[in-house]
Amino acid sequence: MKKVNLDSFAKTAMIAAIYTVVSLALAPFSFGNIQVRMAEALTILPLIYEPSIWGVTLGCFLTNLIGAAMGVNPTGMLDAVVGTLATFLAAWCTYRLRNHTIKGFPLWSILMPVIFNFFFVGAELSALYFQGNFVLGLLIMGAEVAVGELIAVILGWLLVKALSRTKIFE
């Protein structure tokens, strides 16, 4: 692990803050089975900035925790653990797979948030709402979450393309 300096710490904290503010400001769209959590666009940042893994993870945790406390997160505290784990693993895999491209496009990296949220958040929602048939619930809820996640990561890819032209993460 690299040594953390003040600049890196500040950028990581800013990513977490942006993730949290955007998610909570758009709370009606950020929680539940049909969601487009716009802040999930930031899960693509590890393509260009490794410490953003921690920023999106912290932002997701704070979002889910505050959302549960405010009553806008229907899955409650469970999401603070399961959803945060999904975001951490997705961001970490996005970083690890960043150099595995198809004709220069990091498809596998970009799909990581979609795949992890399909399984983790889909399983979480299925356990809560499809107690009679977990597998069917996972497929339905996971697909609904994955569609919203795909929208967010496409926006994230556009964001990363724009930010990579700046020197903000150097």
TrEMBL record:
This is QueT transporter family protein. The keyword Transmembrane helix applies. It holds the Pfam family QueT. The chain crosses the membrane at residues 12-31, 52-70, 76-95, 107-130, 136-160. Keywords: Membrane, Transmembrane, Transmembrane helix. The keyword Membrane applies. It comes from Grylomicrobium aquisgranensis.
